[in-house]
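fold-stage: in
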Amino acid sequence: MARRELRNDQWQKIKDIIPGKRSDPGRTAADTRLFIDAVLWIARTGAHWRELPPELGKWNSVFIRYNRWCASGVWERLFTALSADPDFEYIMIDSSIVKAHQHSAGAKGGLRIRKPLAVQEAA
């Protein structure tokens, strides 16, 4: 992949605080930077996990690892370390830029047309 989501200087700030580095016990991750790039790609594009480009990894493996990092607080540590970088602000997501799924309204059965109140009282 030619372009990465995470610049070299950003990577240098976080590389020592992420799990899966060689000094950690257990299995070392194959390419943690590629995994972070995959998650940032998902966040930037708003795409579904299954739409992750193959060069960024298997979508299900990325999703499972993302969930593990969420549960253990890794993302909070990473974003705290990177929050001062003005080029990283695109990852700050709020409800004004995220599209809601068509079923997110919560109502069942779709649109119902109701009779005006005056007609309901007369019936």
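fold-stage: in (second)
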Amino acid sequence: MWETILQACLAVLHLNGDVWQTVFTSLKVSVSALIVGTILGLPLGAILAIARFPGRDGCITLINTLMNVPTVIIGVLVYLLLSRTGPFGSLGILFTVPGMIIAQSLLTTPLIAAISRQTISDAWQTHRETFLSLHLKLFQQMKWILWDCRFSLIIALLAGFGRAISEVGAVMIVGGNIAHHTRTMTTAITLETSKGDLSLALSLGIVLILVVLMVNLFAFLTKKMSEKKYG
């Protein structure tokens, strides 16, 4: 076991271009899904936290449920939608990177929305009376509460990225794990493990851990510098 781990660590320094293309595909899909999840999830979380409307509790329950849906279920649903016989089959994006981004966006959006809703809801209890006394419209309330919670919401974004970058099931189904095209780090790890090439699988795992570590470090440093600047 230790020999395999040592070989994996050394292999990280000698990964070929095909492997780095796999790493780049993972980052492209995951970052794109994070951007979509942020654009959709943060406003949705803010609306559910501060607005009161019929069916709100049902929407919160739905978001919390979608946050915990197995990824393979999302993969199958997206596959059916994008297949030739599906309603969006004419787009021709099954087994492509855009199709994988759609699948991962459906995973990141509910997660970011659910976490941000809870974070904003706690802050709303503190600022509610102030905002209401100023007679701010809903959009203005959302804008200011999101800004006030900007440091805390980094956790939601990190959770979204973590789910996207580590996801296997949905991208395997929707992307097809095609070499040089839709293969990601997680699907490559699954493939190499099944082939018995544990050193390569572990080396990809090390790269994956380093990517997540760098993202978390960047978020931590950004938060610290912003807190220092804005108090």
